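Workshop exercise sheet. Pairs work together: one partner reads the sequence aloud, the other fills in the structure field after running the prediction. Swap roles for the next sheet.
Pair: D.N. / O.F.
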Amino acid sequence: MLPKQEVATRPTEEQATNVLYATPEDALKKVFEEFGYWTGRLTDTSLQMCYGLIAANWLIFGSSVDGILHSPWAKWSLISVMFALATSVIGAWFLSETLRRRVIYGECDPGRWRQEFQAATGKQVAWPFTEAINRVGGWTRTIKAACTLTGGVLLIVGALLK
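Structure field:
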């Protein structure tokens, strides 16, 4: 026998003062806000770290292309950093264009948008985004973080072996 499911009700005023979130929807909005904050921080931090790694490579391995080219560690560190930067630009371009199209899609037919909202409510679906937006966003975050961190590790190893 399945356990009885409780129906979500709004807490009384007294109960609401004793909890962090008044409703499950409030808690979900907070999680989504934090997701937006931390993905933005990842973008900002990885960008700053990429710039720092480029400068550190030039400083450690010589401020010339020749100095960088003589160290495979420096070359791979910079390639990794450049890949992270390129991923950031390509991801931002794709996501901005795809989200622009979603705005137009929603504005052109508000009735359809409302129906899709109702159909998606309570389900684990990408709406109001698309699966492509979610996938690209996830891959972009992963690649930016991995390549930036890899560039840092390669710099450190190269500096220690120098």
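Discussion prompt: DSSP finds six helices and no strands in the chain. What would you look at next?
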